[in-house]
Amino acid sequence: MKNIEILTETINLVTKGNTDITNITKHLQDILKKSHIYDGIMLIFVPGATGSVTTIEYEKELIKDTKELFYDLVKEGKQYSHDTTHFHGNATSHLRATLVGPSITIPITEGRLHLGVWQQVVFIDFDNRERDREIIVKIIGSKE
Q: Which of 143, 138, 140, 99 is nearest to 11 (CA)?
């Protein structure tokens, strides 16, 4: 039986808000390489209620389409109850983040993130202002 190891790292970002989409795949690959984990899983989690993590093809026009999708689904300028009780004016940020969620898990196979050919991991900052963000990365697995 192989020994299971657990490693926790963080990624720190400064984001622009307003559905800013940041490719974090290279950060994750660097963390995995440093860990020497050969077989396991990587959990990526965003603390907070206005940011999300998902995968997309990180391509200029698809990034634009993705932003427009969120703007279409959760309209700006609508009166949301959250904005009447909290004065940050960011109900749209919370609602958009709810659609995607705060975490994903990726298999690690033969020392690599098991992603599709065009699949990249992105952080989406839905808040309505610039933010300092922390992303928690937890790897659970075994070395070769």
A: 138
